[in-house]
Amino acid sequence: MTATPSSIEQVIPEQGSTAQPSVKPTKAKRKRFRFVANGKAATGLIMIAIYVLFAIIGPWVAPYDPDARSADLLQPPSAKHWFGTSHLGQDIFSQILAGTRGVVVVGAIAGIVATILSVLIGVTAGYLGGAADEGLSALSNVFLVIPALPLIIIVTSTITNAGDIVVALVIGFTSWAWGARVLRAQTLSLRRRDYIEAARATGEKTWRIILFEILPNLTAIIASGFVGTVIFAVLSEITLAFIGISSVSSWNWGTILFWAQSQQALAQGAWWWFVPAGLAIALLGTALSLINFGIDEFVSPRLRSSGTGRYRTPSGDRVKMKVGFTPVIRGRAETAPEIKIKDPEGVAR
To answer: At residue 339, does pLDDT exceed 90?
Structure first.
């Protein structure tokens, strides 16, 4: 017996022989600002916003002039001096507020310069291939084997009165090679994808393919590389100030540590001279690391909520996701609808 499509009816128990399955249309709610909703990323962004705010208004809201001397020599933290004073009676809290601007400026400029160079060189080498790839890859390999910190020390020591901008540019121009290698590898995997071939076949220009097809898929890697470069730039700038390579006349956290070490603050028991600056460095690194972790979890669904997130399907069932395991659906068991077929005479079978 042959059944025509018009003779097939679904019979759902307790709803009659001609009832149609009731499907509630559900609109998939698009989660906006999913990256900000991540707890790690949100915490890191809030901490970075506080640092940026202090970098902008720090020198203006500092209770004292960071260079001003007083009779309060090596005083511990008090209501008058929140973070204590140095051997010259200088307020350490004011020095930290004034030094925040230099650290943030160096990290931002170095991160931007290194990211731009890594994107230009890495994506260009990966997409063009051939001689261009060989030349740019050789250039990246050269900068990879060059020790960055000794080169920064040599350059900044030869330039008299090297300010924060010069230090940031030197760090940025010597810190792009690793990011370029990563972007080149990812671009090589993307250049042969179907949508790239389709765009090339339709006559799209190379710059449009790179700008609108490849770069959006590299956004997370670029952001992660930027965060890593900022961390390296901040630590490098503080290291240069701590060992006395850069100018010690302008305040930053490394300068505070330089004077604390040169005056043997630890031996004198003046813990307040170096602990606040160390905590400021540690909290800034923690904030940048949290943002980096948030980017990783935003890109990789397996890392979101450590793979133990619970989700609800449109039918109301709960799905528990586990890394490396098949999702398990927990909910009500649905009964398959009965199907009755009518023969040409109208008799249901």
So the answer is: no
Cβ proximity of 63 and 95 under 8 Å: no
User: Is residue 307 one of the residues assigned to a domain?
Assistant: no
Judge contact between 246 and 167, C-beta under 8 A: yes
CA distance 300 to 49: 25
Q: How confident is the model over 135-153, as pLDDT tens digits?
A: 988 998 888 888 777 877 7
SS3 24: coil
Q: Two tokens at 289?
A: 């690391």
Span of 64-68, 98-102, 177-181, 316-320 with lowest mean pLDDT = 316-320
Instruction: Identify whether 25 is part of a domain.
Output: no
Q: Which of 257, 84, 85, 103 is nearest to 167 (CA)?
A: 103
CATH of the domain at 280: 1.10.3720.10
Least Cα distance to 156 among 143, 175, 142, 171 occurs for 171
Query: What is the H or E stretch that residue 320 is in?
Result: strand 318-320
Domain range spanning residue 275? 34-299
In 3D, which of 173, 307, 330 has the Cα closest to residue 236? Answer: 173
Q: Whole-prediction pTM value?
A: 0.72
pLDDT of residue 116: 93
